[in-house]
Amino acid sequence: MTFVFATAEDAEEAFYEAIGRSDLDTLMSVWADDEEIVCIHPTGQRLSGATAIRESWQNIFATNPSFNVRVTHQVRWESVLIAVHSIVETLCLGDDPSQHGPMLSTNVFIRGANGWRLLSRHTSAAADALGDDTAAFEPHSSSRHTLH
Amino acid sequence: MTFVFATAEDAEEAFYEAIGRSDLDTLMSVWADDEEIVCIHPTGQRLSGATAIRESWQNIFATNPSFNVRVTHQVRWESVLIAVHSIVETLCLGDDPSQHGPMLSTNVFIRGANGWRLLSRHTSAAADALGDDTAAFEPHSSSRHTLH
């Protein structure tokens, strides 16, 4: 199954829609066909290469209720061949009306022969107060992030 | 003060050396001259634009002992105009011989008229056991990361 995404936005939309359907094949089709693709989850696991990334998302879909990702507060940098999207994500889990997050994702897309593809995704918990940088770096203290 | 970095590696090396010297001007000179530059700190703060990023690092240098960053376990994707480096960072703080981390950083560099520049940096705490993806995503649980 091969999709051709005309824009980075199309590829990103397909990625999040695939998450909402727990659709592993479509989700994987968004990634670039490249050994150096990297996916970093909010728990701090880094997966590199299609096999490891597929196994990771298969495990996520198998062990969690279905969930949708709501995307807000985008900062986008785009050129002819590359797009870097910094976004804020919130999660809606199964039938639970409450939202979980916020999380920050940096999604890097590249344009190749088969259109736009996801090259790198880095996700981590956002500070409770986005935009407050007064405690941006505290190596001596614990940094505790809770999704609730 | 303007440096011209011939490679993304040169720009990255200058960035970490500037951190080690608490050298704010050199650190800022590595960033691209672009409104959409983004820096995400391990605490979950996202800064966008040179002014906010400069203030943030100024605060980091002012409120912490000097520290060096050791870079390992790189996954690099590079093309003619863009480079995406996924790296593991450990910190050495002041005279403290112990190391802090690991942290994961995704550094995105672009090549422009003035050589290679940093466009986006996303840093977050790494899982204690890198490569273990068995708990890659647990939206119901707390995700606690400690730098010690």
How would you describe the overall organization of this protein?
- The structure is a homodimer.
- Chain A is α+β, with helices and mostly antiparallel strands and about 150 residues long.
- Chain A has one domain (about 10-125): Nuclear Transport Factor 2, Chain: A (Roll).
- The first copy, chain A, contains three helices and seven strands, in the order ααββαβββββ.
- Chain A has a six-stranded mixed sheet with strand order 2-1-6-5-4-3.
- In chain A, β4 and β5 form a beta hairpin.
- The termini of chain A are far apart.
- Chains A and B meet through β2, α3, β3, β4 and β5 of A and β2, α3, β3, β4 and β5 of B.
- β7 of chain A pairs antiparallel with β7 of chain B.
Key features?
disordered C terminus, homodimer, 22% helix, alpha+beta, globular, 148 residues, 3 helices, Nuclear Transport Factor 2, Chain: A
